[in-house]
Amino acid sequence: MTVYTVHEPRPRKSETATDADRFVFVRDGFYVWAFLLGPVWILWHRLWLVLLAYLAGTVALQAGLWALGASGTVKLAVGLLISLLIGFEAATLRRWTFTRRKWKNLGVVVGEDLEAAERRFFDAWVMRNDLPPQPATVSPPPVMRMPAASPEVIGLFPEPETRR
Question: Residue 107's CB: how many other CB atoms inside 10 A?
């Protein structure tokens, strides 16, 4: 089962509520394309600040390794580790960008694939939105009762004592 987070964009100027077709489902897990083609994947998803930080960090790290006189193997290993990090954290980077753009996180849904997750989410969403608002009721606090005394009590205090 795959875990998805659901994000709702802000309504457009002419809308009172966001169209459900614009909701985005972000899969949790490893993104192969983000690992293989990190900057291209970042551009594809329009993560501008992430791209800027990626380029600045990668250039600074490679320049530091060059200044230290690191071998080509070390530089390649560091580049591979950065790509691996981008592959593992791609979903987190997308969620961070949605949060920064003031998108609303509607929750988490689990499904076999994206289609099943969408169906499951929208079924629950429609049921939740079709219910009339419930009036607020005040319920009495639950009554605490002592359990009936049993002859075989296990513990340090076999019989309850009353306070004086």
Answer: 12
